[in-house]
Amino acid sequence: MRKSNYDKFPATEIQGRIWKGWDEICSHIGRACALRGGKRHILVVECYQGVHHEELFAAFSTLNGVTAIHMQSLFKPAAEIETMTYPWLTDDRIFGRRSHFSYQDFWDKDKVDALRRQLDELSGLVLVYGHGAAEVVPDGDTLIYADMARWEIQMRSRRKEINGLGVENREVAPSIHYKRGYFVDWIVCDNLKKKLLAKADFWLDTHISGEPKMIEGETMRAGLEKIVHQPFRVVPFFDPAPWGGQWMKEVCDLDQKQANFGWCFDCVPEENSLYLKIDGELFEMPSNNLVFYKTRELLGAPVESRFGQDFPIRFDFLDTIGGGNLSLQVHPTTQYIRDTFGLYYTQDESYYLLDAEEGATVFLGLKTGVNPDEMVDSLNEAKQQGGTFDTTKFVNEWPAKKHDHYLIPGGTVHCSGAGAMVLEISSTPSIFTFKLWDWGRLGLDGLLRPINIGHGSKVIQWERDTEFARQHLINQVELIAEGEGWIEERTGLHENEFIETRRHWFTDKVTHHTGGGVNVLNVIEGDELIVESPSGAFNPFIVHYAETFIIPAAVDEYTIRPYGASTGKKCGTIKAYVRFKQ
């Protein structure tokens, strides 16, 4: 394996002021509120789910002469909220149905009315803190937004530190936390955040407990404005897995003491963070903020018209080198995910092999002539009786090598075998994987991993057999164009999928166009590349092997060439974008 130059902390430098620590933050807020004067000054602190409320409320309650009000006192009883949300969460360990709640559904209306009357009678500095504060007090005098990225929310739920909106559930399993967030809480928080991105006076980063950082809202918005007109990377995060491998430890320079790393979310904006660098300090916020605030410039008008404020392309890593097979799985068809879970597109995907050991394989498509009832019966028997499932009797196992590309439209049975480093290029709905067989493994929590044969058997496309996979899903490479020092190949995806992928091999400069839609790329060969604007519209941007980077639609034309130690050597990128007529 090569020596790592993978950047785990990509950041965009921006001019502005940053305040660090509660003393400095509260001193500045106290002065800012006092300067605005008036008989009464209402300070609104709105929060995303997952912040440490005890820490934040205690800090802001120290402001001189403040009357502090916590929004939690307005919520309905937890049992009532549990009953209200149950039909969307169900008893399933993983899956629910997308809800359409707002904060008004969580509050006791009489208590809200009483608070508004109370505010009319108060004078001096008044703090209204917590979930929905900006909804109850839409015209507060100073607005602070306390943000939180979903990857950190997941870490906090694993440590049993946080509750969901209006409920006491910090002791439940992390999968239950994630389900409540995905189907209920994050929808409510995002809908309000979208209204506040353009108006908040200050933005608060409390991803590291006890070490808060704050910037002005104008600084945050200027940062997003800069990012959307240049190449950028989100902050990757890495996670172990029962099947995890060893490749990322070396190539991405990770903690060697960890047993393995299976996952890397290298470009999943709904989960990842963005870093702004201000006066040498990193300020963290969810990368979804950019999607919400600069939708059209980021995605492009045709993509926005189809996906709204969803970033539709996902790049992540699955490392089984030195590890084990992934679970045998299938993703839902579009109609099934719509009818069953309330989403309007599914997780079509593909496996691009960044690397592979000798003997690596990918399981893809069913053996020709498979009897559906026999296969489902065998899966259920393995699940219920703790036996084994004869995978190779029913599923094709294909030899896999570096730079192979396997296309996996929804409804196709698949999984990566051991010994592969997969760059997974897919559409965004990340939770909808129906596991059919998991080799009898326990999860990292010591429990058997959830198996979803009931869902999976309803979406398997049984005609996707050996010949179909060979003819339509494996290495569908087509030469598109070539020039001096470069070639462009189409590698997929399947015609059922809305993502197009193009691979470039080059020793010299290659010109790209966003074509009016967002581009997502990964460096598949070469230690170092440089991305440049022919018109000088953005500063040169350097990327390294295995890094994923995003080119907003607003960039339009850009070039990529080998750089540094890679100058003159053969390099490669793979690019994904949404297909649409031009």
Number of strands: 31
The CATH superfamily title of the largest domain: Jelly Rolls
Strand % is: 25-35%
CATH arch. level architecture of the largest domain: Sandwich
Query: Overall pLDDT, averaged?
Result: 95
CATH topology-level name of the largest domain: Jelly Rolls
Helical proportion, percent range: 25-40%
Summed up, the domain count is 3
* Strand order in the largest sheet: 2-8-7-6-3-5-4
CATH class of the largest domain: Mainly Beta
Describe this structure in words.
A hairpin with a 2-residue loop joins strand 22 and strand 23 (486-492). The chain folds into three domains: 12-227, Rossmann fold (3-Layer(aba) Sandwich); 237-472, Jelly Rolls (Sandwich), CATH 2.60.120; 478-578, Jelly Rolls. It is globular. It is built from 17 helices and 31 strands. It has a seven-stranded mixed beta sheet. The protein has a six-stranded antiparallel beta sheet with strand order 9-10-13-20-15-18, with no helix packed on it. With 582 residues, it is an alpha+beta fold. The relative contact order is 0.12.
Summarize the structure.
This protein is α+β, with helices and mostly antiparallel strands and 582 residues long. Helices cover 27% and strands 28% of the residues. It contains 17 helices and 31 strands.
Summarize the helices and strands and which ones pair or pack:
Elements: E1 12-13, E2 18-20, H1 22-36, E3 40-47, H2 53-60, E4 67-70, H3 78-89, H4 109-121, E5 124-129, H5 133-136, E6 142-147, H6 150-158, H7 174-196, E7 202-205, E8 213-216, H8 217-227, E9 237-239, H9 247-251, E10 263-267, E11 273-278, E12 281-286, H10 288-293, H11 295-299, H12 301-307, E13 313-319, E14 328-330, H13 334-341, E15 349-356, E16 361-366, H14 372-385, H15 391-394, E17 395-399, E18 405-408, E19 414-416, E20 420-427, E21 434-437, H16 453-459, H17 466-472, E22 478-483, E23 486-492, E24 499-506, E25 510-513, E26 519-525, E27 528-532, E28 541-544, E29 548-551, E30 557-562, E31 571-578
Parallel strand pairs: 1-11, 3-5, 3-6, 4-5, 6-7
Antiparallel strand pairs: 2-8, 7-8, 9-10, 10-13, 11-12, 13-20, 14-21, 15-18, 15-20, 16-17, 16-19, 22-23, 23-24, 24-31, 25-30, 26-29, 26-31, 27-28, 27-30
